[in-house]
Design goal:
Oligomer: single chain
Shape: globular
Number of helices: 11
Radius of gyration: 20 Å
Structural class: alpha/beta
CATH topology of the largest domain: Quinone Oxidoreductase, Chain A, domain 1
């Protein structure tokens, strides 16, 4: 089968290879999927760059956790009725070597979720990390109906799904954007107010919009960098759910201030979500797909041979939407 892999850490163009690999065989409880698409996420590029130094112990890695395709074989214990099913997959390259950047993938059957017939495989490659992370950020601390949520980076992959989940659940959403294109995507997703985070007046603009009331929850893409202004906006007893802090990777917390505000800080990463949270996200994603209630954005598609370009697109951080590798035709 055709596949991409890396045997050492480094820049995408230096270490990613494409060629032939042995086709996997599904074990007990697994399905074999003929992959159509593979999604490239920031966590995939960080792994390739050496974020986990023991990742290459035992051999090369086929990257990427998200993707979509069609089940071709069912392992022992899996109903044969699943053969022919269109699916999206998540967590493919987590605590294992074989991700979705290959023509075939053998994976635990419960990680292969039915993809509705009217949903493109390209979209299926965008659901795992972005949509599930956003779902956890929005709902981990209870219902949001009637609440005001402040979502930073609302044009990004996770932020855009977070806006949509929050609006579908009845929240008022305030988001940040830095340019007109990002502003458009936030409004399209349903944000009630979009502010420019680079403006000194941002906090006052938000408080003017809420009539002086502070926000109930914050979903944050840059925890360390944004924390000072977040503390000016969040109410006592509020929740900060964050899934990234790249600009300030080791934030210093004003503990006393945050303690007296009775704040909850929730760190979110899809791999470590409890199983019940994953299943709740899958259930809501499935319902939303069936009812066409989510907007999905694809930044660019690439053939497998250009997987390095897809990695570079993600690392540049200037795109709005998912980077998708196409592995075959529908």
């Amino acid at each position: 089968m055709k596949a991409a892999w890396f045997e050492q850490f480094g820049r995408a163009e230096d270490v990613l290879k494409t060629g032939e690999k042995e086709r996997p065989v599904p074990g007990p409880g697994e399905v074999l999927i003929k992959m159509r698409t593979s999604g490239v996420n920031p966590s995939d590029t960080k792994k390739r760059d050496g974020a986990f130094q023991d990742l290459l112990d035992g051999g090369p890695v086929i990257p990427n956790s998200d993707g979509a395709g069609v089940i071709e074989e069912a392992g022992l214990g899996v109903p044969h009725s699943r053969i022919g099913e269109r699916v999206w997959v998540y967590q493919a390259q987590f605590q294992r070597k074989h991700g979705t950047a290959a023509e075939y993938l053998a994976i635990d059957s419960k990680r292969a979720i039915r993809l509705p017939e009217h949903i493109d495989f390209d979209i299926g490659a965008c659901l795992g990390i972005p949509a599930m992370t956003a779902h956890r950020c929005v709902f981990a601390d209870g219902p949001v109906e009637g609440q005001v949520l402040f979502i930073t980076g609302g044009a990004g992959r996770v932020g855009n799904y977070a806006i949509q989940w929050a609006k579908l659940a009845g929240a008022t959403v305030i988001s940040t954007a830095s340019n007109s294109e990002a502003y458009h995507y936030c409004i399209e997703a349903g944000a009630d107010l979009v502010v420019d985070y680079k403006e000194e007046s941002m906090v006052q603009e938000i408080l003017d919009f809420t009539g002086g009331a502070r926000v109930d929850r914050v979903i944050d893409v840059e925890f360390g960098a944004n924390l000072p202004r977040v503390l000016e906006l969040i109410r006592v007893g509020g929740v900060i759910a964050t899934y990234s802090s790249m600009l300030v990777p080791e934030p210093k917390l004003p503990f006393r201030q945050m303690m007296f505000m009775d704040l909850t800080v929730r760190m979110v990463i899809v791999y470590a979500m409890p199983e019940h949270a994953k299943q709740a996200a899958i259930q809501d994603i499935t319902s939303a797909l069936n009812e066409n209630r989510l907007i999905h954005r694809i930044a660019e598609t690439f053939p497998l041979e250009r997987i390095a370009d897809a990695n570079n697109l993600i690392e540049e951080g200037n795109q709005y939407g998912c980077a998708v590798i196409r592995l075959g035709e529908e």
